[in-house]
Request: fold
Amino acid sequence: MVLNYIWIAFFIISFVIGLGKLIFAGDTTVFPEMMAATSDSAKSAFELSLGLTGVLSLWMGIMKIGEKGGLVAALARLLSPVLTKIFPDVPKGHPAMGTMFMNFSANMLGLDNAATPMGLKAMQELQEINPKKDTASNPMIMFLVLNTSGLTLIPISVLTFRTEAGAANPTDVFLPILIATTVATLVGLIVTSIYQRINLFNRTMLLFILGVCLFVAAGTWGMMQLSQVRIEALSTSLAGIILFSIIILFIIAGIRAKVNVYDAFIEGAKDGFGTAVRIIPYLIAILVAIAVFRASGGMDVIMDGIAGLASAFGADSDFVGAIPTAIMKPLSGSGARGMMVDAMQTYGADSFTGRLSCIFQGATDTTFYILAVYFGSVGIKKTRHALTCGLLADLAGIIAAIIVGYIFFG
Reply:
């Protein structure tokens, strides 16, 4: 329901802003640009869906092999002590537990090609135990909020763009990004737990959260010992090794369970193709709304408002130049990436604004896109508190990014 109101608001606000620019500023190009944006974004959404088809078919085929080979169920049993605390409504040892963990792991390592198919597979498994098929269940919401918080240990794309922008030390934003995205994830977990009345103050969860923090700290320390070249080489090699190891491991599990591996792959690939087709309308809906809002100048209005508010309170306004990246990130990954690059080109890659825009880019994920694709893949219409919790996690990530930005570079 909330997503419905926001989608409507995008169009109405865009129309009002466009009308104001036409009447008071004599801007006769605003409405043609808005209409062009609808066509271009609808085309982009369709092309994006087609691009996802092959990847979804591949990884959902691999996941089907792992499922029939018993590997996913074994992983679910192994992780059940922790995940049953976060997802109490999911039966102990359910395959969704293993699939969700694989999705989280892929996201943390920046393996987007594998993370999305695994996430969509997890949503399908959660939908099987969902009593209200058109309404998001508590486990679905918790799963998506943890996804939208965007915890990533290796933000390789951000580091690559900083290298291309000529940053003196492209990896200097690594630690601030890690801190900000960890804060976003923890806040998302806590807020959603409050909504769902999940008790996190138990021995298992406290040890788990402490373990995650120690793991992040260890990974941070290890990365800080490496040069930019070594980080890029390690990230690229690690991604390839992990992805191919997963494929081999699933195939071996299928062979041991005497599964017809080829037929299992084809069965899963067919599901992947069907999923890619189902998400097309949802992608078009959200991307068109965002594109119209941008073309109308709505983003500029928000920017000017934030700058004016900061000036009115006498606050430092250096962060304002990076705000477009923060605002755009929940809406569009490519849009936020464009804003980040523009900030580095305008202010300099080593400026406070340029660095902060990179921290924003790595702090959270594309909340609206994730909700549209994941819920759309299983036909969920009533999203309940998913968007609220996701945006609160985003807000926490943005605030944390500003604070650590000033601590490290202010």
Q: What stands out?
A: The CA atoms of residues 69 and 258 lie 8 Å apart.
